[in-house]
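Inputs:
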Amino acid sequence: MKRYALITGACTNTGVDIVEKFASEGKNVVFTGRDSNKVNTALENYRAKFPGVDIKGYAITSLLDERTVNEQAVVEMFADFDKKDMFIETVVLNAADQGLGIEIFKNPITDFMRVINTNMTWNYCICENAARRMKENGGGGIVFVNSNTAYRAIPDRIAYSASKSGQLGMMRAMALDLGKYNIRVNAVLPGMIKTDRWDKNPEFYKTVPSRYTPIGDVAVGKDIADAVWYFAEHARNTTGAELTVDGGNTIQLYPIIPEK
Ligand SMILES: NC(=O)c1ccc[n+]([C@@H]2O[C@H](COP(=O)([O-])OP(=O)(O)OC[C@H]3O[C@@H](n4cnc5c(N)ncnc54)[C@H](OP(=O)(O)O)[C@@H]3O)[C@@H](O)[C@H]2O)c1
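Outputs:
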């Protein structure tokens, strides 16, 4: 049986840094994305960069529609792992519906359901399938890539904030129920990360208040990947824990914005 880390939503942005961290440490990786072309392109890139590591990509959609999680796709993906004698010893739940621009008086309730179903129910489904195998194989680790918006709200992101707060409750409850099987469940809480959205919208990010952190900068994907790696590989006696990686942003009462 070969051991792998499963990393969701890893064709772009932070997911790529997490895959590259695990691969550079010599870990076999399975990653997911929803679009098979994007998955194949990412797979080619990863394999070219890490020729000595076993990397596989799976195209998998989270939802059948806003109200319905694609549970069957998760079940089939794990059945395929079983068939190939692959054991997922680490799960990193990185994919997320950002729930951008969902306004309380404008958007239909199905937009709220879409975000909750992806960020909570679909992730629960992946955890259930993974933990079942971890229990049979001596244990494992689950890491949620959460958000500091689980605690501090930002405008027009009710569904996203609710999903990330709910994720933390789910993380702690899973840690409690799965500890006896040597399965650790933890969460990394990024603040703002320099993703491609940052590059595409420099005017917005030049003045956004959350860039003013005590550290004086926001995270890059590698910062998040390092924190995920800590939980996955080093935190032997840590479960149900949170590690905030936001430059100290949420310890402030308000951001200190220089006058010039
Ligand atoms: N960026 C930030 O500033 C920031 C701040 C705090 C927390 N976070 C958290 O950090 C993680 C990574 O952030 P990121 O900005 O790198 O993420 P991202 O690029 O917005 O999304 C990561 C991946 O999630 C997948 N995804 C999006 N909607 C999905 C859906 N409905 N079902 C399944 N997959 C879906 C997408 O993959 P495909 O399109 O390839 O399927 C996407 O590449 C996320 O959990 C995010 O909530 C980010």
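Remarks. Residues 191 and 246 are 4 Å apart (CA to CA). The first helix runs from residue 13 to 24.
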